[in-house]
Each structure stands twice: as structure tokens, then as C-alpha cells.
Write a structure and sequence with these properties.
Blueprint: H1 2-31, H2 35-53, H3 56-70, H4 72-81, H5 83-105, H6 112-139, H7 150-155, H8 161-183, H9 189-219, H10 224-229, H11 232-253, H12 259-276, E1 282-285, E2 291-293, H13 301-331
Antiparallel strand pairs: 1-2
Helix pairs in contact: 1-2, 1-3, 1-6, 1-8, 1-13, 3-4, 5-6, 6-8, 8-9, 8-12, 11-12
Length: about 350
């Protein structure tokens, strides 16, 4: 049953990266959109993220519950030593959702709309930035459970070049995902070309940020190159991601709008597989060579068994409901989905 739980944890993280990432990326795209085009961008954005908006954070909640119930030592360590970036990320999620709701449903149109817009776009950037920082910190080997001072325990654990580089890489990936999804929602050729340019820009940004991640890993003696290229799975995943990226841009040039979403999701899967396979199930790497493992640091067998059964049974309800949610939004006219 432990492997069932581990599988659900990995899938929850992947789905949050793909679906939540595209959601956050919509705000990032809006941030880099001119004032003249922002209104059209928002309308297209609502149509694109509407079907998954309400369900996105479900995947994050599932991941947190799995860690809390099944792996309390890992949950406690991360929530203690990474509580600052975790708090900022959660505040970003709350601020973003609140701002989007108010700017969509506020009955009065005044200067507060400008405030809502700024909160929405800035929190859309900050949230994935700190999500990436948390992910990078977990494997950076900077978490010091024996730290004797505040800075060593709660600042240097995440405030380092590698973790910050991962954060910006995550932001670029989210923007890229959103641009790809937005291409499929456009109806005018000029709008399609505009989002293709956004996707190209975010693609370049992701490549640059990815290069910075590798540079940072070398500077801070993190064996990222070995994790990625030191095993056949990592090499294959990188190869498949690269090939699918080429195919995706070819299909974009041919006007294919929907298959490119599948390819973008596939690329995120390959990236996550590449960066986690080598050291999995050691999802937290501590300072001085220690680590926390999903196998060795799991909870009581009864807790794991009950958690696994709950996840299996829950998926029988959640997945069909999510499918119906997407179906119901697809049935609506796009003009009716402005407020989702």
C-alpha cells in the first residue's frame, strides 16, 4: 500500500504543476501584456482556466494531506524549516483567488479594479516562484535540522542560488503552459499569433532559467547533472521532452490547437520525472548528507493502509466529477464563461 500512496503523491504534485501551473501562468502572461491587449487577454484567460479553476488547489491539498497523514516526519521537517516560503506561497494563493473573485464579481467598477488586477498578477508570479523555491530547497541539502541560530535554520535553508533558480524556472514553465493553453482558446488569427509570441518568449525564458539551475547546482555542489544524466530514465525523459517540444512547435506552425496542450503536459511530466527519479523516494535531502525517505520515514502501517484505501476510493468520486466539470464548461458558449 505504501507504493499506492507514493504514486498518488507523485501524481498530485504533477497535476498541480500542470493544471495549477497553467492557472498561475495566466496571471504571468497578463503581467507581460500591454494595457491595450489586457482586456482581450483576460477574456481568453477565463475561457481557458475556467474548467479547472475550481479544482486546481485540490491537488495541492491532497499532497499536503498525504504528507501530514502518511509521512509526519517529512511534513513536520518541511513545515518547520521552510515555513517562511510556505507561508508566502499560501498567502499568494489566497491573495490571487481573492483578487480574481473581486475583479470578476464586484458590482462597482472603480479604481479598486486596478488594485485587484495588480494583486492578481503579482501573486500569480510570487506563488509559483516560492513553490519552486520550496521544491528546490527540499533537495538542495541546505535544510539543517541541527542549526543553532535563526538564519541557518529558517533562512539559508531556502534562500540560496539553487532554490531561487528553481523558483524562476517554475515561473517560466507556468507562463509557457498558460500561453500554450491560451493559443487553443483564441478565435482570431491576430490573437493566436500574439499568444504564440508569448509562448515563444516563455519557452526561451524557461531554457535560460533551466541553464541557471544547472549553473547554480554546480556552484553549490548539488549533483543535479548526475540526477538528470546519470541514469537511463533521466536521459530518456530529457530526450522525449526535447523531441516533443520540437513536435509541438511544428504543430503550432500548422495551426493545431489542442494536441499541443497534451504535448505541453507531457513535457512537464518528463521534467518532473527527470528531476525526481534518481533520488526518489528521498524527497528531502538534509545538510551533511542526511535525507528523509518516503519508505524509511513513513507513518504507521495502519495509517498508510487507511490512507491508501481512502485515496483509491476517493479517486472513484473525484476523477469522474472533475471530468464532468470540464465537460460542463465545454458545453457553454465561451462568451458566457467570463466570470467562471
Amino acid at each position: 500500500m505504501i507504493y499506492v500512496v507514493m504514486g498518488f503523491l507523485w501524481m498530485a504534485l504533477l497535476l498541480y504543476l500542470v493544471m495549477g501551473g497553467a492557472d498561475f501562468g495566466a496571471g504571468i502572461i497578463e503581467m507581460f501584456t500591454s494595457d491595450a491587449n489586457k482586456s482581450r487577454t483576460r477574456k481568453t484567460m477565463y475561457n481557458a482556466i475556467g474548467p479547472i479553476w475550481e479544482a486546481n488547489h485540490m491537488w495541492l491539498i491532497i499532497a499536503i494531506v498525504i504528507l501530514f497523514v502518511g509521512f509526519p516526519v517529512i511534513y513536520t521537517t518541511m513545515s518547520t524549516y521552510l515555513h517562511i516560503p510556505l507561508t508566502i506561497m499560501l498567502m499568494g494563493i489566497i491573495a490571487r483567488g481573492t483578487a480574481l473573485t473581486f475583479r470578476s464579481y464586484d458590482a462597482v467598477t472603480d479604481n479598486m479594479q486596478l488594485v485587484y488586477n495588480k494583486i492578481f498578477v503579482y501573486s500569480s508570479f510570487i506563488t509559483p516562484l516560492f513553490l519552486g523555491i520550496i521544491a528546490g530547497s527540499a533537495v538542495s541539502g541546505r535544510i539543517d535540522t541541527e542549526a543553532a541560530d535563526f538564519l541557518s535554520a529558517y533562512i539559508y535553508s531556502w534562500f540560496n542560488l539553487f532554490s531561487i533558480a528553481i523558483g524562476f524556472f517554475t515561473v517560466a514553465l507556468c507562463g509557457f503552459l498558460a500561453a500554450i493553453y491560451l493559443i487553443g482558446e483564441t478565435t482570431e488569427e491576430s490573437e493566436t499569433k500574439r499568444f504564440i509570441r508569448k509562448a515563444r518568449f516563455m519557452n526561451i525564458a524557461a531554457v535560460v532559467a533551466g541553464g541557471l539551475v544547472f549553473i547554480a547546482s554546480v556552484e553549490e555542489n548539488i549533483p543535479l547533472v548526475q540526477w538528470v544524466f546519470g541514469n537511463i530514465i533521466g536521459v530518456l525523459a530529457v530526450s522525449f521532452a526535447s523531441i516533443s517540444l520540437i513536435v509541438m512547435w511544428y504543430l503550432i506552425s500548422k495551426g493545431k490547437r489542442y494536441i499541443i496542450r497534451v504535448l505541453a503536459g507531457f513535457q512537464m511530466t518528463m521534467i518532473l520525472l527527470t528531476t525526481t527519479y534518481k533520488h526518489y523516494p528521498n524527497i528531502v535531502i538534509l545538510k551533511n548528507g542526511g535525507y528523509l525517505s518516503l519508505i524509511e520515514n513513513r507513518g504507521a502501517d495502519k495509517a498508510i493502509e487507511g490512507l491508501g484505501i481512502a485515496l483509491l476510493v476517493g479517486s472513484l468520486f473525484i476523477l469522474p466529477a472533475l471530468g464532468y466539470l470540464v465537460y460542463s464548461f465545454q458545453r457553454k458558449d465561451k462568451g458566457d464563461v467570463v466570470g467562471h
